[in-house]
Amino acid sequence: MDTDFEGVLAFFKELGPLSLSKTKLAFEGDLGLGKTFLIKALLELMDPHLPSQAASPSFALCLSYQSGPYQIDHFDLYRLENQDQLDEIGLWESLEDPDRASWIEWAGKYNLVLRACDLVVTLTESQGQRAYQITRNPR
């Protein structure tokens, strides 16, 4: 599905918080295109209080958010140097837990991670316009 920012939010709003809270999402796109901004907006769909807590996990590598029964793990793989570090940051544990959301920026750096995600959200920019593509992972 190709869409704009509002279309992405509408798509995930239709999924609802329960589905979104268990979804494994990959976020792809160049630096500065708004992956973390989009994740903050999705967190707001889950719970209006979460975006104020949200930050880019570029240096922490993983930030976790709790909203009632929902746990959302937000990973940023940009700074990882090798696949061994995926275990160290708890990525596989999060992906294997059916009751957790795993939202992963730069998942495409590691093909195994990308294949473990349910949906891939790709952000692009052309002539100053951002575009978003949501694809189901064929696995």
From TrEMBL:
Cellular localisation: Cytoplasm
Q: Which GO terms describe its biological process?
A: tRNA threonylcarbamoyladenosine modification
Q: Does the keyword Metal-binding apply?
A: yes
The record's keywords, sorted A to Z, are:
ATP-binding, Cytoplasm, Magnesium, Metal-binding, Nucleotide-binding, tRNA processing
Taxonomically, the superkingdom here is Bacteria
Q: Which GO terms describe its molecular function?
A: ATP binding; metal ion binding
Q: Which Gene3D superfamilies match?
A: P-loop containing nucleotide triphosphate hydrolases
The Gene Ontology CC terms held by the record are: cytoplasm
Q: Name one Pfam family in it.
A: TsaE
Signal peptide bounds: none
Does the record's keyword annotation contain Lyase? no
Q: Which family, according to the similarity comment?
A: Belongs to the TsaE family.
| Official protein name in the record | tRNA threonylcarbamoyladenosine biosynthesis protein TsaE
Question: What organism does the UniProt record list as the source?
Answer: Candidatus Lambdaproteobacteria bacterium RIFOXYD2_FULL_50_16
